[in-house]
Design goal:
Number of domains of chain B: 1
Distance between the termini of chain B: 39 Å
GO biological process, one term (chain B): transmembrane transport
Largest sheet of chain B: 2 strands, antiparallel
Structural class of chain A: alpha/beta
Shape of chain A: globular
CATH superfamily of chain B: MetI-like
Pfam families (chain B): BPD_transp_1
Number of domains of chain A: 2
Helix content of chain B: over 70%
Oligomer: heterodimer
Number of helices of chain B: 12
Organism (chain B): Anoxybacillus pushchinoensis
Structural class of chain B: mainly alpha
CATH topology of chain B: MetI-like fold
CATH topology of the largest domain in chain A: D-Maltodextrin-Binding Protein, domain 2
Order of helices and strands of chain B: HEEHHHHHHHHHHH
Radius of gyration of chain A: 25 Å
CATH architecture of the largest domain in chain A: 3-Layer(aba) Sandwich
Main location (chain B): membrane
Protein name (chain B): Carbohydrate ABC transporter membrane protein 1, CUT1 family
C-alpha cells in the first residue's frame, strides 16, 4: 500500500516537473521565433492543395523554413485553383497580394496577360540556373515565346485506375489493363453486373483535353495557340469525335457510370466498387492506393485502335512570382522555388502524392526506389510522361478562356447521357467556345 | 419662402446618413453595374471598350441564357408555393395551445439556425446515389436507384426540395408570430355564434394574417431569385445547365470567366425581373391584404 502511494507521488512529481519544463522550453522557443522573425523575410505563399496534398506541402515548407534562418515561407490555402485565382484577381497589385502563388496549368496564359507577375526567367538568367535538369516535357509546357514564366512545381498526368480484384472476379487478367478503346469496351462489358459498372470519366474538361492530345489532336488552331493567338477551336475533328463516341456508346451499352463533376464523388464511387475502372489524375494515385479496400492497378490513358500514342499533356500547377512586391521578397521566394525543385524535395513530393518529379534525377534517389517497390503504381505515371512525344498537341493549348471552354465541354459531355448525338454535342461546344474566343479578342 | 428652404434643409439632414449609406452600398454599385454592362472588361474588371447594348443583344440570342431563365422561373415555382403552404400548415398546427407545443415550435423553426452551406452538405449526402439515405429508402420500398443531382429531369427539383426545407424555418416563425397577433376574442365570438373551425380559418385567420402572408411571399420570392449557395454546393449549375439559375450564371461569368461586362448585363436583367415581379405583387396581391 505504502509503496503504491509513493509510486504515485513520484509519478505525479515527475509529470509536474515535465510539464513545467515543457512550458519554459516552449516559451524560450517562442521568444526566439519572435526575435528571428524581425529579420526574416516573409514569403506569403498561396496554394490550392487540400487533404493529403496539403499535409505533404506543409511538410516541405516546414523543412525549408528549418533549413535556413533568413526566410520564412507562410503557406496559405486559398481553395481550389479557380477560387484562388478569383482571390488573386481581387488583391493583385495591392499590399495584400501574396509573394508566391500556385496556379494551374490552364491559368498560364491568364497569368501572363494579367501583367501582375514577374517571369522567373529573370532569375534563371541572373543566376545561370540550369533548366535542362528539369523534365523536358515540363520545360516544353511552361516555355511561352521563349520565356519561362513560372516555376513548375506539381505536375501530374491522367491515368487509368482500375480495381484488380474486380478484374479477377470477372475473369480478366489484372496485370493486363485495357490499352485501346475496343479493349476498354470489352473489359467494361465483362465488369458490368449487379448494379456495378465497368468504366467512368469525370465530367471535367481536363480529361477530354488529355484524350484528345494522346491521339495527337489539337484543341485550338495556331498550333494550339502557341504559334499565334488562337482564333478557332480545333477539337471538333475526328479525334474529339472519337472521345465523345466512346462515352456515348459505352453509356448506351450500360457499361459507363456517370459520376458527375465532383472528384471526391468519383473516388468514393470507385472505392465503394460502383465502377471498376476510371480516369484520374496521377496526383490522386497514392491516396487511392492507400485507402481502397482492394488491389489497385494504374495504367496508361487508353487510345483509339490503330492510333499511334502521342502521350499526355502536363497537368498540375506551377509557382508564380508577383511583380509588385519588394525585390528582397522576390529573391527569398526564388530561393524557395529553387528549393522545391531540388531532386531531394521532388523525390519526397513524388512518393507522398503521385505528382511526378519536375527534376528527373529525383527518381535515382533511394527514397523513390524504395517507395516504387511498395507502390509500383507510381512508376506508371512517370513512364507515361517519359514516353510522351513533344508536339504542339502534347504541349497543351494556350488560351485565356480555358475556364469557359471547360464549362462548355462539361455541358456537352453531360448532354451525351441525355441521348444527344456525339457530333451535335461536339459542334455545339465548338460554336460556343468559338464565340468566347471572338469575345476575348475584343478585350 | 425662407421657411420652406429651412424645412427642406432640415429634412435633408435627417435623411443624410441613410442617403449616404445607400449611395455607397446600393446606388453606386447599381450605376457601376449598368456602366459595366455596356463595356468589355479586362480580367480585373476594368472596362476596356464600349460595346453599347451588344451584351444584351447577345443575351437574348444565347441558348444558355434562355436555359438559365427557364431554370430560374421553375426554381421560383418549385420553391415559393411549397415553402409558404407547408410553413402555413405548420404554423397553424403550432398555434394550438397544447402541452409541449413549445417543443414543436422549436423543431419547426430550427432550420432557421442552419447555414445554407451546412444544410447543403447534409442534403448532398442524402442525395448521394450510392450511400445516400434517400436511395436507401427508395430501394427498400422496391424502387430503383436514382442519380438525383445528375439527372437533368430531377436535379432542379432536388435542389428545390432542399431549399424548401431550408426556408421553412424562417417562414414558419414569421407566420406563427402573425397568428399569435390575432385577437383571441374574435375566435371566442366565433365560437359563440357556432362558426366551424374551417370557416373561422377562412373568415378570421387568413384575412388577419394576410399582411404577414404577403410579407412572407414577397421575401420568399426575392430569396428564390437570389439563390446561390445550395446550387454551388449541390450541382454547380449542372447537369446541362438545368440548375444554372440567373444568380449562379452571373457569378460564373464574373468570377470564373472574368467576363464582368456580360455578367453585369445579366445582373441588370435580373434586377428588372425582380422589380417587375415586386410591382405586380404590390398592385395586384396587395389589394387582397387586410390591414387592421
Amino acid at each position: 500500500m505504502k509503496k503504491w502511494i509513493s509510486t504515485l507521488l513520484i509519478a505525479s512529481t515527475l509529470v509536474g516537473c515535465n510539464s513545467g519544463s515543457d512550458e519554459t522550453v516552449s516559451k524560450t522557443n517562442d521568444q526566439k521565433d519572435e526575435e528571428q522573425q524581425v529579420q526574416k523575410t516573409e514569403v506569403v505563399f498561396w496554394h490550392a492543395m487540400s487533404g493529403d496534398l496539403e499535409k505533404a506541402l506543409n511538410e516541405i515548407v516546414a523543412d525549408f523554413n528549418a533549413s535556413q534562418s533568413t526566410i520564412e515561407v507562410k503557406p496559405v490555402f486559398q481553395g481550389t485553383y479557380e477560387e484562388a485565382l478569383t482571390k488573386f484577381n481581387a488583391v493583385a497589385g495591392t499590399k495584400d497580394s501574396p509573394t508566391l502563388m500556385q496556379t494551374f496549368e490552364i491559368g498560364t496564359k491568364y497569368m501572363i496577360e494579367s501583367g501582375k507577375i514577374e517571369p522567373v526567367q529573370k532569375f534563371i538568367d541572373e543566376e545561370g540556373y540550369d533548366v535542362s535538369q528539369w523534365e523536358k516535357n515540363i520545360v516544353n509546357y511552361y516555355t511561352v515565346n521563349g520565356t519561362i514564366y513560372s516555376m513548375p512545381f506539381n505536375s501530374s498526368t491522367p491515368v487509368l485506375i482500375y480495381n484488380k480484384d474486380a478484374f479477377k472476379e470477372a475473369g480478366l487478367d489484372p496485370e493486363k489493363p485495357p490499352m485501346t478503346y475496343s479493349e476498354l469496351k470489352a473489359a467494361a462489358k465483362q465488369l458490368t453486373k449487379d448494379g456495378k459498372y465497368g468504366f467512368s470519366i469525370l465530367n471535367y474538361g481536363w480529361f477530354f483535353e488529355q484524350m484528345l492530345a494522346v491521339q495527337g489532336g489539337l484543341y485550338v488552331n495556331e498550333e494550339n495557340g502557341r504559334k499565334g493567338e488562337a482564333t478557332e477551336v480545333a477539337f471538333n475533328g475526328k479525334e474529339g469525335l472519337r472521345v465523345f463516341e466512346l462515352i456515348y456508346d459505352m453509356y448506351n451499352e450500360g457499361t459507363f457510370y456517370n459520376v458527375g463533376q465532383n472528384w471526391d464523388d468519383m473516388r468514393a464511387a470507385f472505392q465503394s466498387g460502383k465502377m471498376a475502372m476510371y480516369l484520374d489524375s496521377s496526383a490522386g494515385v497514392r491516396t487511392i492506393v492507400d485507402s481502397a479496400p482492394f488491389q489497385v492497378g494504374v495504367s496508361y490513358l487508353p487510345i483509339p485502335d490503330d492510333v499511334e500514342r502521342q502521350g499526355v499533356i502536363i497537368g498540375g500547377a506551377s509557382l508564380w512570382l508577383m511583380k509588385d512586391v519588394d525585390e528582397e521578397k522576390k529573391k527569398a521566394a526564388w530561393e524557395f522555388m529553387k528549393y522545391v525543385t531540388t531532386p531531394e524535395v521532388q523525390a519526397k513530393w513524388h512518393v507522398n502524392t503521385g505528382y511526378f518529379a519536375v527534376n528527373p534525377s529525383a527518381y535515382d534517389l533511394p527514397i523513390v526506389k524504395e517507395q516504387w517497390e511498395k507502390y509500383p503504381q507510381l512508376m506508371v505515371t512517370v513512364n507515361q510522361l517519359k514516353e510522351t512525344k513533344a508536339t504542339p498537341a502534347t504541349q497543351g493549348a494556350l488560351i485565356s478562356i480555358f475556364p469557359q471552354a471547360r464549362q462548355k465541354i462539361v455541358s456537352a459531355m453531360e448532354s451525351l447521357y441525355q441521348g444527344v448525338e456525339p457530333k451535335e454535342a461536339l459542334e455545339r461546344a465548338a460554336n460556343e467556345i468559338n464565340r468566347e474566343l471572338e469575345m476575348a479578342k475584343k478585350r | 419662402m425662407p421657411h420652406t428652404v429651412k424645412r427642406v434643409i432640415e429634412g435633408g439632414m435627417y435623411i443624410l446618413p441613410s442617403l449616404l449609406l445607400f449611395s455607397i452600398f446600393v446606388f453606386y454599385p447599381m450605376i457601376r453595374t449598368l456602366y459595366l454592362s455596356m463595356h468589355m472588361t479586362d480580367f480585373q474588371g476594368n472596362p476596356t471598350t464600349y460595346v453599347g447594348f451588344e451584351h444584351f443583344v447577345y443575351l437574348f440570342e444565347d441558348r444558355n441564357f434562355k436555359e438559365s431563365m427557364k431554370a430560374t422561373f421553375l426554381f421560383v415555382i418549385y420553391t415559393v408555393p411549397p415553402t409558404v403552404i407547408i410553413s402555413l400548415c405548420l404554423a397553424l398546427l403550432a398555434n394550438e395551445k397544447l402541452r409541449g407545443i413549445q417543443l414543436f415550435r422549436t423543431f419547426f423553426s430550427s432550420t432557421l439556425g442552419m447555414s445554407v452551406a451546412a444544410s447543403s452538405v447534409i442534403w448532398m449526402f442524402m442525395y448521394n446515389p450510392a450511400v445516400g439515405v434517400i436511395n436507401k429508402i427508395l430501394i427498400a420500398l422496391g424502387g430503383e436507384e436514382r442519380q438525383w443531382l445528375l439527372n437533368p429531369d430531377t436535379a432542379l427539383a432536388a435542389v428545390a426540395a432542399a431549399t424548401v426545407w431550408m426556408n421553412i424555418g424562417f417562414a414558419f416563425l414569421i407566420l406563427l408570430g402573425g397568428l399569435q397577433n390575432i385577437d383571441s376574442t374574435l375566435y371566442e365570438s366565433a365560437e359563440i355564434i357556432g362558426m366551424s373551425r374551417l370557416y373561422q380559418l377562412w373568415r378570421i385567420t387568413l384575412p388577419l394574417l394576410s399582411p404577414t402572408l404577403f410579407f412572407v411571399i414577397t421575401v420568399s420570392l426575392i430569396h428564390a431569385f437570389q439563390t446561390f449557395g445550395q446550387i454551388d454546393i449541390l450541382t454547380k449549375g449542372g447537369p446541362m445547365n438545368t440548375t444554372t439559375v440567373l444568380v449562379y450564371s452571373i457569378y460564373r461569368e464574373a468570377f470564373v470567366n472574368y467576363n464582368f461586362g456580360f455578367a453585369s448585363a445579366q445582373a441588370i436583367v435580373l434586377f428588372f425581373i425582380v422589380l417587375i415581379v415586386t410591382i405586380v405583387q404590390f398592385t395586384f396581391a396587395e389589394r387582397k391584404v387586410h390591414y387592421q
